[in-house]
Amino acid sequence: MSIQLSPVAWQLQAACRGPQSEVFFPPSQSERKHDRLERERRAKAICGICPVRSDCLSYAMEIRESHGIWGGLSESERKSMMERQLAAS
């Protein structure tokens, strides 16, 4: 049996907490494609070792988060996942 954590509880366990959290969202100024891909790669590497990655992704999908890397997926990857889920239902 799995214990469901409240959003606050799982967020406290997230690997993205702290100063490295800036890589999960685009900067306020324009970003070159190469820089965006590198930033996203770094964020996804942090997600790869995160103990609450699935909780994070579930939360982002539930609230339809449209910005940043959540649960190891970018905005466009989450959108594609949502479209596949809707098509399958």
UniProtKB/TrEMBL annotation:
Q: Which cofactor does it need?
A: [4Fe-4S] cluster
Domain of life, per UniProt, equals Bacteria
* Gene Ontology CC annotation, any one: cytoplasm
| Single GO biological process annotation from the record | cell redox homeostasis
Q: Where in the cell is it found?
A: Cytoplasm
- Which residues hold [4Fe-4S] cluster? 16, 47, 50, 56
PROSITE patterns for the chain = 4FE4S_WBL
Q: Where is the 4Fe-4S Wbl-type domain?
A: 15-80
Swiss-Prot/TrEMBL keywords: 4Fe-4S, Cytoplasm, Disulfide bond, DNA-binding, Iron, Iron-sulfur, Metal-binding, Transcription, Transcription regulation
Q: How is the cofactor bound?
A: Binds 1 [4Fe-4S] cluster per subunit. Following nitrosylation of the [4Fe-4S] cluster binds 1 [4Fe-8(NO)] cluster per subunit.
The residues forming a coiled coil are: none
**Record-linked Pfam families:** Whib
Membrane-spanning parts: none
* Gene Ontology molecular function, alphabetical: 4 iron, 4 sulfur cluster binding; dinitrosyl-iron complex binding; DNA binding; metal ion binding; protein-disulfide reductase [NAD(P)H] activity
**What about PTM?**
The Fe-S cluster can be nitrosylated by nitric oxide (NO). Upon Fe-S cluster removal intramolecular disulfide bonds are formed.
Q: Which family does it belong to?
A: Belongs to the WhiB family.
Q: Which PANTHER family match?
A: TRANSCRIPTIONAL REGULATOR WHID, TRANSCRIPTIONAL REGULATOR WHID-RELATED
Briefly, what is this protein's role?
A: Acts as a transcriptional regulator. Probably redox-responsive. The apo- but not holo-form probably binds DNA.
The entry's protein name is Transcriptional regulator WhiB
Which gene specifies this protein's sequence?
whiB
